[in-house]
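Handout, section 4.2: multi-component inputs.
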Amino acid sequence: MLGASYALIALGFALVFGIMKKINLAYGSSLLLAASISVCLNEIFVLSIFVNFVTLLIFSVIINIYIERMCFAWHTGPAGILPSMIASFAIWMQLDELAFRLIPDRTHFFKGIELGSIEIGQLFIKIDALFHFAVAISAMFLLYLIMMKSKFGLLMRAASENANTAWFLGARISSLGISAFALAGLLGGLAAFLILSANSQITPMFGMWCTFKGLVAMMLGGVGSLIGAVLGGLILGLLEAFVLFKLGVEFRELATFGVLFLILIIKPGGLLGGKSFMLIQEIEERV
Amino acid sequence: MTVLSIKNVSKRFGGVLAVDDLDLTVDKGEIVGLIGPNGSGKSTTINLICGVFPMDKGSIKLFDNDLKGLARYERSHLGIARTYQNIRLFGGLTVWQNVWIATRQNGIGSFAKKLGALFLRSQKSVEAVDELLDLFALQNKANIAAENLSFGEQRRLELARALASEPKLLLLDEPAAGMNSEEVQELRDRIFKVRDLGISVLLVEHVMELVMNVTDRINVLNFGKKIAEGKPNAIQGNALVQEAYFGS
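Output:
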C-alpha cells in the first residue's frame, strides 16, 4: 500500500505546481535535505521522535522559503515561469549535493513513529498505510478549505493568476509568496516524516523518488486538482503493487510511465484536471 | 478638501516626455475627467498615482500623505483603487470571491485579528460584498466564475471589486471602452452612485458622451502637458482642445 504515501507527496506537488502555478523542481530535494538535516542532528544529539519531527518540519519550511526567495520572488507573471523553473533546477542540484554531504552512506536509520500491522483473516494491513491514507485525506480537505474558501488561499490564487492586480488590491505579494511556500514546506515535511517513518530509513535517492512519484501521481490525477492528486497517488500505488505481483520488479517503472503516457494521450489534463487544462488552452487562444 | 493633489509631476520614457509638469487636483466628492488624444499621457498619469513606476519630478499627495516611494499595496491601503483599460479580473475565482478578497479590515487590529481575517469570513465583510453586488446588479451571478461573465458584467465586477477596499479615490481607466450608448448611461448612473458614497473619482475616458455628462471638471492633456481645465461646456468650446483633437 504505497499508494497512500504517493498521495501524500502528490498533494504537495498539486499545491506547488497546480494551484500556485510555480514549477518548483527543487521541492523533492527540499524534503530530502530537511530530512537529512534532522537525521544528522539525531545522530549527533540523539533526539526524541517528537523533536525529530519538529526539526524536519522547521527545516522543510525554511528551505522552501529559501527556494521562494532565490527563484520565485524575482520572477512573477507568465514571463517568469521559465526563468524561475531553471533557477529551481540549480537549487535542486545545490540541495541534493548538500544532502549527499550530510548523509554520505547509502542508507541511514530514520527514527520515526512505529506503527504495527494488523491481520484480518488472510488480509495483512500495515497501520502505516491506513494512517498515511487518513492524513492524506484530511490534509486534502484542509487544503481545499484553505485554498478555495479562505481569503488567504484566494489571494494566493489571485496572485498566481495576476500578481500586479493583486498588488493594487492591497495584497503584499512578497509575504504571500513566502507563506505559500511555507505552507508547501509544512505539508511536504509532514509527508516526508510519515513516509520515512514507515520505511525507517533514508537514502539520498529520497528526493528524486519524491519528485518522480509525486509528479507522476499528480499528473495522473490531474494538474491543479487536490482530489485528483490523492486519487492519482492511490492509482499509482495499486498499479505498482499489481505489476510487481504479476510481472516482476523490472516492469514496474515501465508500467507506471506507460499508463501515464496513455492517460495523457487520452485525457491531456489528467483524470480530474480536464478543466484546468482547457482553461490554459482558452487563455492561449485569447492571447 | 483636496483628496488628490499632483504638483509639477514629470515622467520621461527614454526620449519621450510622457507627462510634462502636470498639476492636477481632485476635491472631495468631485468627479474629475482627464481627457486627451492617444498618447497624451493619461494612462501614465494613472500609473504614476498608483506607483507602477516612479515619477522623475514633482509630488503626488493623497490628503496629507506624500505618495513618493510608497509601494503599490501601501497606496491601496491609503485609499486608492483603480480599474483597468483591459479588464483584469481573477478569472478562476467566483464573482463573490473576486470582490471579497479586496475587502479589508478597518483600523489596526492585533496580529491574531489580522490572521483571523485571512482565514475566516467576518460578518461585516460578507455584508459589504453583498451590498456591492446588489449595487452593481451582480447578486444572481455571485457563484459564477468571473471568466464566464459577459463583457459588461466583467466591467461592473471590476468596479465592484475596486470599491470593496473602501477607497477614498477611485481611478477609472477608460471604463466605457466598447460599451454601447445604453450601457454608457448605466455606467454614468453608477459613477454618480459611487460619488454619493463619498468617493472622489478621476475618470480617464475617450467616450465624450460619458465625460461631458458625468464630470464636474475636465482636464485636457496633449503631449503630456495640460492645455485646458474647466467645466465640461467650457472645454467643449475651447479652441486649443479642438486643435489638439482635430488638428484644425
